[in-house]
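RECORD TYPE: inverse folding
INPUT: structure tokens
STRUCTURE:
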């Protein structure tokens, strides 16, 4: 009988009945070409959210701040839960936003000019680490839905050296601490335990109404999104299968740059 503690031991598994052969890359071949895989899905996810919220309103300006923490077993349908120990996959949520500040404002100047906008400063989202190779031999391969796999890298002690400014060409974290998990074992790294780059964004609108007659007028608006053109970086590549790839730990994408648009409306 294959006990749970021996599932991750390929050498022992080869000596036990019903364990199945192994391919050269370490993954189990299965029962043969006439059999497919089977996915089990259960409603067992659990989450916990706590937050401190503060709001200040002054005239036509509003300031809101949230300090929060969200923890769960799986943040979406795509994440898999450890079938042998469900609590082992309980970490900070993928959407956890520890600090978030949002200011909105509107001011009406003389001569019909108005200025309004939204300013946001927030910490980054957590970095999700996972191994897409099933080196644990648990069979937690992607199936088109559950593609953020159970396996995680092996991590060694040391400073993470978090870098939230990819402009300096340094990795987003200390990639030398991570290695592919040992064949037949789950990696010792948590799925999520540190954060990526934050957000610093300004959206601004300047508008003016020009009256032609009592019933006819033009509304002119100039809108700038990411008005100061600050790069809003997305999280770095964090798939264990890319540990030996130059992309691992590297930020490779960002939100759109500054966008300015002009709108003209004729009312009659």
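DESIGNED SEQUENCE:
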């Amino acid at each position: 009988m294959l006990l749970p503690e021996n599932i991750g031991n390929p050498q022992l598994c080869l000596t036990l009945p019903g364990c199945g052969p192994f391919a050269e890359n370490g993954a189990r071949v299965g029962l043969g070409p006439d059999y497919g895989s089977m996915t089990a899905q259960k409603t067992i996810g659990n989450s916990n959210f706590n937050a401190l919220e503060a709001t200040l309103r002054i005239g036509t300006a509003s300031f809101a701040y949230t300090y929060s923490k969200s923890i769960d077993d799986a943040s979406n349908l795509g994440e898999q839960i450890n079938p042998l120990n469900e609590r082992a996959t309980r970490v900070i949520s993928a959407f956890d936003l520890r600090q978030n500040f949002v200011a909105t404002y509107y001011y009406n100047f003389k001569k019909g000019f108005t200025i309004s906008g939204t300013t946001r400063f927030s910490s980054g989202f957590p970095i999700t680490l996972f191994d897409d190779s099933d080196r644990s031999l648990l069979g937690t391969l992607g199936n088109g839905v559950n593609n953020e796999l159970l396996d995680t890298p092996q991590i060694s002690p040391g400073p993470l050296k978090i870098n939230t400014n990819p402009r300096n060409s340094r990795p987003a974290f200390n990639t030398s601490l991570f290695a592919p998990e040992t064949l037949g074992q789950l990696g010792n790294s948590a799925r999520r335990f540190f954060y990526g780059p934050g957000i610093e964004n300004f959206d601004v609108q300047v508008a003016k109404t020009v009256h032609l007659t009592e019933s006819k007028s033009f509304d002119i608006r100039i809108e700038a999104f990411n008005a100061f053109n600050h790069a809003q970086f997305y999280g770095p590549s964090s798939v264990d299968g890319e540990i030996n790839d130059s992309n691992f730990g590297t930020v490779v994408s960002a939100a759109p740059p500054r966008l300015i648009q002009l709108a003209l409306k004729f009312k009659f």
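NOTES: DSSP finds one helix and ten strands in the chain.
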